[in-house]
Design brief:
Helices cover 40% and strands 17% of the residues. With 406 residues, the protein is of the alpha/beta class. The protein has two domains: 135 residues, Aspartate Aminotransferase, domain 1, CATH 3.90.1150.10; 255 residues, Aspartate Aminotransferase, domain 2 (3-Layer(aba) Sandwich), CATH 3.40.640.10. The chain binds 4'-deoxy-4'-aminopyridoxal-5'-phosphate. 4'-deoxy-4'-aminopyridoxal-5'-phosphate (PMP) binds next to helix 4.
């Protein structure tokens, strides 16, 4: 077991009071809190290493470049990519998916081609493809869920046709916690010659990811969900795809030579990184990944499972309680509704007790439609949460139920 009390000391915000009560932060699926070392890295970047990267001959610029490129290698190691050229820095998961939708879409998708998504996707893995539909008439095919809110693999396999050109699917659902069998999904897709994008926004904070072992073609995630800063994210892509794909945006850095007649583009990964990158944040992201690995992803997974089981056992005993997401492989997310209490009221009243949860559709409206609801209350756990905080949540939910006479 982790020494959670010691870990909590690394996160200054966790000792805050909200309405005079200790903050209980269960909105980790939206963004995680930052350890002091990450906050300090951001400050240190501006205090000591601030100069634009890649362009300067002067000392500071070289130093900033080394730190930024070191961060790229750190990300490469974190997801075990075979080369740092396959790591593209973006603003986050959303931008990474948009980049692939635009660039892969331009190169490899034509009218009538099909993309397989799932019913549990975040809007960023739906709308990005719908924007592509405005340029190419691609067809979105949707993998459905079974009664436990797991992917129905038989139905998924039945979606393939000779028009299928891509599968784009979440590793872990942000609403249900369902961990999708991504390795099997990649195998099934590759057997049919179809590449796979995995949305790792909700897996990287909780599970060890090895992109070579998964053999996925693209893998995307956000720094801010994995204890890093906002404004930086990652697109991993296999070199064979990235080399063929056209640039996503034009600007400085992504070019080799520019004339008014013709421009040639830079090599990987710079071809996809137009403009000044957020080189302060990439270095702080590397620090966050060091921090997470110093705790250990296996230890994190084990402890968070313990918290999830502890919470679930208490929740199922409450009258009128409905839990969404009963997958056999589940990450530390508890989405629920209590009969007769609107999710928004529940969230608002828990907030007054100092408990931060998320309410609403969680950017997954098609999933809400499939579940026949308009939102849930979501408590998403981190390794810095404690049993006592879960007890506070359970007591809080019971108090709200009492107020509503449930
Ligand atoms: N995909 C999933 C599964 C998510 O949970 C989120 C964030 N809620 C995103 C994509 C989008 O991430 P970001 O807003 O950091 O780009």
């Amino acid at each position: 077991m982790l020494d959670v009390n010691l870990i909590r000391k690394d996160f200054p915000i966790l000792s805050s009071l909200v309405y005079g009560k200790p903050l209980v932060y269960f909105d980790n699926g939206a963004t995680t809190q930052k350890p002091r070392c990450v906050i300090e890295k951001l400050t240190e970047g501006y205090v000591s290493h601030n100069a634009n990267v890649h362009r300067g001959v002067h000392f500071l610029s070289q130093e900033a470049t080394d730190l930024h490129e070191g961060a790229r290698r750190r990300v490469q190691a974190f997801i075990n990519a075979s080369s740092s050229d396959e790591i593209i820095f973006t603003r986050g998961t959303t931008e990474s998916i948009n980049l692939v939708a635009y660039s892969f879409g331009e190169c490899f998708l034509h009218d009538g081609d099909e993309i397989i998504l799932s019913e549990m996707e975040h809007h960023s893995n739906i709308v990005s493809w719908q924007l592509l539909q405005q340029r190419h008439h691609v067809v979105l095919r949707v993998a459905r869920l079974n009664d436990r809110q797991e992917l129905d693999m038989e139905q998924f396999k039945s979606l393939f046709s000779d028009k299928t050109k891509l599968v784009s699917i979440a590793h872990v659902s942000n609403v249900l916690g369902t961990v999708n069998p991504v390795k099997q999904i990649v195998e099934e897709s590759h057997r049919r010659g179809v590449p796979v994008l995995i949305d790792g926004a909700q897996s990287t904070p909780h599970l060890k990811v090895d992109v070579q072992d998964l053999d996925c073609d693209f893998f995307v995630f956000s720094g801010h969900k994995v204890y890093g800063p906002t404004g930086v994210g990652v697109l991993y892509g296999k070199r064979r795809w990235l080399e063929q794909m056209p640039p996503y945006q034009g600007g400085g850095e992504m070019i080799q030579n520019v004339t008014f007649e013709k421009t040639t583009f830079n090599e990987l990964p710079y071809k996809f990184e137009a403009g000044t990158p957020d080189f302060i944040s990439t270095v702080a992201l590397a620090e966050a990944l060091d921090y997470v690995e110093s705790i250990g992803l296996e230890e994190i997974e084990e402890y968070e499972h313990y918290l999830l089981d502890y919470a679930t056992e208490r929740f199922v005993q409450m009258p009128g309680m409905r839990i969404f997401g009963n997958a056999r492989e589940k990450s530390a997310v508890l989405s629920f509704l209590v009969e007769g209490i609107h999710h928004y009221d529940m969230g608002l009243l828990l907030d007054k007790m100092g408990i931060a949860v998320r309410t609403g559709h969680h950017c997954a409206q098609p999933l809400m439609q499939a579940l026949g609801i308009d939102g849930t209350v979501r408590a998403s756990f981190s390794f810095y949460n404690t049993e006592q905080e879960i007890d506070a949540l359970v007591d809080g939910v019971k108090r709200v139920c009492k107020m509503f006479g449930v």
